[in-house]
Amino acid sequence: MLTSILDLAFPQPCLLCAGPDSGRPGICQPCLQDLPWHLHDTCPQCALPSQHNLLCGQCISLAPAFDATFSLFRYQFPLSGLLQQFKYRQLLSLAHTMGNLLVEHVPHIPVADCIIPMPLHQERLQERGFNQSMEIAKVVSARLHIPVDFRTCKRIRPTPPQASLPYKQRLRNMQGAFECLTTLQDMNVILIDDVMTTGASLNALAKTVKAAGAKHVECWVIARTFSP
Ligand SMILES: [Zn+2]
Ligand SMILES: [Zn+2]
């Protein structure tokens, strides 16, 4: 963590091109512009591509538990590589940059009562030493003056890696993965995660948060993949 704090205090070369730091911490302005931005023609509920920003077929036939989703980027090269860096280094620089970009690009800032970062299971947290969604949530929280609630929701079951599972199995895999320890009665909640793939994890978390009484739940993610 000390390294990360130093990274933020002293300009670093761009993580993508190694050029001088001319833009945001960890990424230079030209590389930032070249990233796969995902700001047009998306389903407002799940952020999949959808013409004229209309609700997509999937959300019409089987609505997810969350009410809205905003994704900054498509999960493609070179962004995919950049987000991998979260796991190794540059945590604070990237969280700072991505958190600020979320706030600056979300179509409207909701009146929210709290921000809940995607919880990691305790074992995973100990293994990794940090939760990248929490680091992004802290930046968003400071910018919007909305508190981060990292106590109410817990991941109570370590879930096996999702990537190799078919979609239906992913949904089943997430059942009962989270619990809320206190009520969220009538609250408007923002859920924050780094990458949204099928949305199974966010859907399971949103379901749990709504079962605890939340009124409106929206997901903010750095990147969204499109294939199920
Ligand atoms: Zn660069
Ligand atoms: Zn949709």
Automatic annotation (TrEMBL):
Residues 5-59 form the Double zinc ribbon domain. InterPro entries: ComF/GntX_DNA_util-trans (IPR051910), DZR_2 (IPR044005), PRTase-like (IPR029057), PRTase_dom (IPR000836). Gene3D superfamilies: 3.40.50.2020. This is ComF family protein. Pfam families: DZR_2 (PF18912), Pribosyltran (PF00156). It comes from Methylobacillus rhizosphaerae. Residues 133-223 form the Phosphoribosyltransferase domain. Belongs to the ComF/GntX family.
